Amino acid sequence: MKILSLVIIPWNSGLAAYAFDQALALREAGHEVVIGSPAGSAADKFAAANNFRHVAVPDHKHFGRFPAGFGRLFFFARREGVGAVLAHTGLAQTVGWLFRLFTPGLKLVRVKADAKTPAIGFTFSGVHRVISASAHIERMYLAAGLEPSLSALIPQSIETPPYEPPPPPVPFRVGLLGRLDPVKGHECFLRAAALALKSGPDLEFHIAGEDCNVKRADLEKLASRLGIAGKVVFHGRLPDTLSFMRSCHAGVSASLGSEAVSRAALEWMAAGRPLVATAVGSLPEFAEPDLLVPPADHAALGGRIAGLAADPLRAERLGRAARERAASEFSRAAFVKSTAAIFG
User: How far apart (Å, rounded) are the C-alpha atoms in residues 30 and 42?
Assistant: First the structure.
């Protein structure tokens, strides 16, 4: 089947990353995928790098101003014999719904991998299935009134690399990977670090991620005010996240909200490291229940970190168990099979 995947956003995100994995899975299953996205966007670059055909569309902010762009996309789909449209945003769903009005038999599949609360509008009359990238998203859809028979839960997948044991236990290294943004909870992480260090000095805290609404300099000042500057290392954006995770004994996700999907959580699991996480979004689907804490609760977060640091063997056992879960529950093979099944 020829499938048009509409990714009408210019940036990279969890939504885009899921769309990219999905396109690769569908091609692996024998389908032809065409990427519809704005010129110069992350999806455009993905298509070029992975030899997918690409059709340019205006981005989500300008789509309605360019009816000619919609017309070109519509006639492209008709001319090419597109049999299904993957809609990764609400706007893309509306576009697919309009296509169906003039193309009997066209399948419209809504794909949801972002944190925006879903709404069941009139365009759902044309939706064949809804793919949720996490159980958290599926619950939001069902609560909004989605017919359960339309729902398909297909969690994101990850390749499990060869296992490498953690480094020597002293110092116990704790890592946080994510853009420097208020929602990621870096301030809470630093306050938790200050508390954990009171239980024992042999800990280090490592933060990897680029500035995004929070400046690294401001976090460095906070670390100084907390008296832990010598125990916190800022790495900036790293091209090799696996090596960073392997250099740590445990990972942390201190997010205050969002996390409809969490690639970082899966990567910590695949790397074989335990994850201490806040109970927001999809994070409870990845972290062990005993390692979950309420959002913004730096005392609880610091306590969980200190507990792992006090028992490195337990931390290693939890990391191995997390890796086994990643390999069994979030495998690439399962993702390809479940994704392909939507299209027969």
Answer: 24
pLDDT of residue 61: 65
Give the tokens for residue 199: 């239980």
Within its chain, how far is the Cα of 102 from the centroid? 34
Helix (H, G, I), strand (E, B) or coil at 321: helix
Tell me what pLDDT residue 258 has: 86
Strand (E) or helix (H) holding 93: helix 90-102
Distance (Å, rounded) from C-alpha 189 to C-alpha 200?
A: 17
Rounded Cα–Cα distance for residues 344 and 341 (Å) = 5
* pLDDT tens-digit map of 9-41: 888 888 999 999 999 999 999 999 999 999 899
Residue pair 77/36 in contact by the 8 Å Cβ criterion: no
For residue 113, give the nearest of 37, 34, 21, 2 by alpha carbon.
21
The confidence score (pLDDT) of residue 71 equals: 76
Dihedral sign, Cα of residue 203, residue 204, residue 209, residue 211: positive
Measured distance CA(84)–CA(96) in Å, rounded: 9
And the tokens for 343? 């299209």
> Mapping DSSP to helix (H, G, I), strand (E, B) and coil, where does residue 329 land?
helix
Instruction: Answer for the pair 17, 263: CB distance below 8 angstroms, yes or no.
Output: yes
> Rounded to 10 degrees, what is the CA torsion of 270, 273, 275, 276?
-170
Taken in order of first residue, the domains within the chain and their CATH numbers are 2-154 (3.40.50.2000), 172-329 (3.40.50.2000)
Q: Phi and psi dihedrals of 156, rounded to 5?
A: -60, 155
DSSP letter at 211 equals B
CA-based end-to-end distance of the chain: 9
CA-CA distance, 141 to 269, in Å (whole number)? 27
pLDDT < 70: residue spans in the chain: 60-69
As a whole number of angstroms, the distance between CA 93 and CA 123 comes to 7
| Rounded distance between C-alpha atoms, residue 302 and residue 72, angstroms | 55
